[in-house]
Design brief:
Blueprint lengths: L2 E2 H4 L5 E12 L2 E6 L1 E2 L13 E3 L2 E2 L2 E5 L2 E6 L7 E6 L1 H25 L3 E6 L4 E5 L6 H16 L4 E6 L1 H4 L14 E6 L3 E4 L14 E8 L4 E7 H22 L3 H40 L4 E6 L4 H14 L3 E6 L4 E6 L7 H8 L5 E5 L3 E6 L2 H14 L3
Parallel strand pairs: 1-4, 17-18
Antiparallel strand pairs: 2-3, 2-9, 3-8, 5-6, 5-9, 7-8, 10-11, 11-16, 12-13, 13-14, 15-16, 18-19, 19-21, 20-21
Helix pairs in contact: 2-3, 5-6, 6-7
The site of zinc ion has 6 residues, from helix 2.
Cofactor: Zn(2+)
GO cellular component, one term: cytoplasm
InterPro entries: Ala-tRNA-synth_IIc_core (IPR018165), Alanyl-tRNA_Editing_Enzymes (IPR051335), DHHA1_dom (IPR003156), Thr/Ala-tRNA-synth_IIc_edit (IPR018163), Transl_B-barrel_sf (IPR009000), tRNA_SAD (IPR012947)
Length: 390
């Protein structure tokens, strides 16, 4: 069994040790070291990264009491220099310790237990065993946890037997066998845990809840601690600064400015839609008056398919027509007719579209299709015009 530096001296970033064993599994080398500070995946905490003899550590896991380091190559020498990715480990220590603290506050102040923990390089969340958390309670929990951070309390570890573990006021039930590690936040919280933690609450830095999600019987709480919280703050500040410039308002007035802008945009949109509709009605009237045959065939460079829908509606109000209307920018075709004609628009489309690389269909009086190229659209338009009899 290796000496576990991540429990004895978790801040060790570089060390020399011996390779005890190397297993070759599925083309990878699973290396056992005499001493390791590479934390194996466990207790919700991801495995560490770093290098052994300059070879990147791809994964670390524990099996049968041994810690295995997965490498792409076997180290050439028995004595190896190890280097821990300290920035990554410290980040995980901050997140993990912050989670203990947040869970402790929720348990101590509300009696809410923490279910599962999800910790990765990107995200951090816990499932809180309560049906609902109000925004007020969230703020209170966040404030209380950050208050404990500022008190810079000691985070200690007790290595005990299952019998001794029972004497501690544990927030979670400890295992009933083996050696048990109880992580204590200076008389605030006792929690059995095998992960790595910072030495004092001050090292956690700010704890910020960033969101909640309702689960079946619990609430998922997303949060960020220390460096992650700072980076998130920096990213959000950048967004606020850009929005402030865009809307010419400082942070305090930004929301009301955006809301006013939204209302204005909606009113403009409504006005525009009404005007467009009036224009389409006029255009339909003009088309109907100037039509020399019942077939109206127009390809528009500046109209959407929705515009064509309105146009066809007004054309049908103005007279009896067979319409082949194309929206060139959307490469879509509308094929519709008045009741008095017999052409089956849907059937005609279905039967011939494939030859023009088009997709679509519809009913006898109304059909539509989309094309992958303008050329196919135009060819099909011409084909339909040729095919129609009335
Ligand atoms: Zn822990």
């Amino acid at each position: 069994m290796a000496r576990l530096l991540y429990y004895e001296s978790p801040r060790t970033t570089e060390w020399q040790t011996e390779v005890v064993n190397v297993l070759n599994k599925d083309g990878k080398y699973h290396v056992v070291l005499a001493e390791t500070n590479f934390y194996p995946e466990g207790g919700g905490q991801p495995a560490d990264r770093g290098t052994i003899a300059g070879i990147p550590v791809e994964h670390v896991y524990e099996e049968g009491g041994e810690v295995y380091h997965v490498l792409a190559f076997a180290p050439a020498e028995k004595t190896v220099a190890c280097k821990l990715d300290w920035a990554r480990r410290f980040d995980l220590m901050q997140q993990h310790s912050g989670q203990h603290l947040l869970s402790a506050v929720m348990y101590n102040n509300h009696g809410w237990e923490t279910g599962s923990l999800h910790m990765s390089e990107e995200g951090l969340s816990v499932d809180v065993l309560t049906p609902d958390v109000t925004p007020e309670a969230l703020k209170e929990i966040e404030d209380a946890a950050n208050e404990v951070v500022t008190r810079d309390l000691e985070i200690k570890t007790h290595i005990v037997t299952p019998e001794e573990a029972k004497k501690y006021p544990n927030r979670k039930i400890p295992p009933t066998a083996g050696t048990i590690r109880i992580v204590e936040i200076s008389s605030h919280d006792f929690s059995p845990c095998c992960g790595t933690h910072v030495a004092r609450t001050g090292e956690i830095g700010i704890i910020k809840i960033t969101g909640t999600q309702k689960m079946k019987d619990s609430m998922r709480l997303f949060f960020k601690c220390g460096g992650r919280a700072l980076r998130d703050y920096q990213a959000k500040q950048e967004i606020i600064t850009k929005l402030s410039q865009l809307f010419k308002a400082d942070q305090g007035k930004l929301l009301s400015r955006i809301e006013a802008h939204e209302a204005e945009a909606r009113a403009h949109w409504k006005e525009l839609t009404e005007l467009k509709d009036k224009l389409l009605k006029i255009e339909a009237g003009n088309l109907a008056r100037s039509a020399s045959t019942p077939v109206i065939r127009v390809a528009y460079e500046d109209k959407s398919f929705n515009d064509l829908m309105s146009l066809s509606k007004y054309l049908l109000q103005a007279g009896d027509f067979i319409m082949i209307l194309a929206s060139v920018p959307e490469k879509r075709l509308l094929f519709a007719r008045s009741k008095k004609f017999d052409v089956d628009c849907g059937k005609l489309m279905k039967e011939h579209l494939a030859a023009f690389n088009g997709k679509g269909g519809g009913k006898p009086e109304f059909a539509n299709a989309g094309f992958s190229s303008v050329e196919d659209l135009q060819r099909f338009e011409a084909f339909l015009a040729d095919k129609i009899t009335y």
